[in-house]
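Researcher: Next entry in the queue.
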Amino acid sequence: DAVVIWTRVTAETDEDPVEVTWAVYADPELTSLVAYGDTTTTGERDFTVKGDVTGL
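Model: Structure for this entry, 56 residues:
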């Protein structure tokens, strides 16, 4: 009933933070949104993002 999604983004520069929005849908047509989140990542985190998706 839960998953962890993880990704790394490619930043234009190492100095600028990157805003990331993620979403999980229950269907391939992307009409049934299950969860979403917004976060910011930086070079200190190697431009990685982790999302804990619960209630699946």
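Model: Residues 2-54 form one domain.
Researcher: Noted, moving on.
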